[in-house]
Structure formats: structure tokens, C-alpha cells
Amino acid sequence: MAKCGSSKALAIEIGKSPSEITKFRAGESGLKIEHLEKLIKISGLIIAPADKEAKLKTALKIMSELFIEETKNTP
Question: Which of 30, 44, 47, 52 is the 20 to 30 A CA-CA neighbour of 37?
Fold first, then answer.
């Protein structure tokens, strides 16, 4: 919602009414796949298998350790 500014703007962006978004957020109703796809696209969410997540975490850990090591060696 932060990217759209308000629940009304988000609702319009994905093709639903503000009241339908409110009900969805409260767990009182669902959304069709097409609306969920739009919501995911707006949010920037990336869905990946668990094994990919573990590999990404390992890569990020290595990168951060290299960055820390490099900054220690930089005058």
C-alpha cells in the first residue's frame, strides 16, 4: 500500500473497490488470481523455491563478509 499511497489507490490499481481491499486485508474475503498477480507485481514481491532462498542467503552472507573485509582494508 505504501507504493500506491492509500488503499483506495491500490484498489483502483488492481481493479477492485476500496471496500473489497479492506475485506481482503481483514481476512473476510479473497481476491481472484488476476488481482493477486497485480498486487504482487506492484509490491515487487519475488516468489522463489526454498532451495533458491538458501543459496541466495549464502551468497548474500559471502558478499557482506567480503564487503566488511574490503572496508577494513580501505584507508
Answer: 52
Q: Give the span between the Cα atoms of 57 and 53, in whole angstroms.
A: 6
> Using CA of residue 4, residue 6, residue 7, residue 13, what is the dihedral sign?
negative
CB 4 within 8 A of CB 13: yes
Which among 9, 6, 7 is positioned nearest to 21, based on CA atoms?
7
Note the pLDDT tens digit of each residue in 23-73: 988 999 899 999 999 988 888 888 888 888 889 899 999 999 999 988 887
> Alpha-carbon distance 33 to 40, whole Å?
10
* Sign of the C-alpha dihedral computed for residues 46, 50, 55 and 61 taken in this order: positive
